[in-house]
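= Protein in question =
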Amino acid sequence: MEDQFQSQQGNSIGGGDPSINLGQYWHVILERRWLIVATWTVCIIAGVLYAFQATPMFRAIARLQIDPENQGVLNLNSLALGNQDQNYLTTQYRNLESRSLILEVMEKLKLDTQDPRYAQKLDKVTAVTKDIKIVPIRLSRLVEVQVTHPKADQAQRIADTILKVFLQRNL
């Protein structure tokens, strides 16, 4: 047994015949062809069933530019402290995700009673918040509000209302 191991090891490392016998692999594939066909068939059928059973989800995107409050006035402190600008933007991103803003959007659109997606949930605000994603665009003052919903028009209404309520609060 040790002699066989050493001879096999010697052939593969020592520069023996390094060619791969593809005929052996082909023979194994032919022996197991029904297992391979059955596996592929099950995977394709499962994929097709999932595709027809899944609820289509639509994403609406609304984009907002967030500018500092005192943009027109020259402020020497703002030139020296660039970190304040980032803190301001981060605060505004958190305000877009705030529970009070989402609650006001829900009241305006009557999501808690008229939308069956949220009417069934115990914590309706959390359910709406899970469908909303705030995505800052790198190296800019732009932020995207992305809303995912089974109805495309409802997703767009939610995204637009979030921006309207946010802008009303900040004016």
Summary: The two ends are 85 Å apart (CA to CA). The first strand starts at residue 58 and ends at 65. The chain has a mean pLDDT of 84. The beta strands are 58-65, 132-136, 142-149.
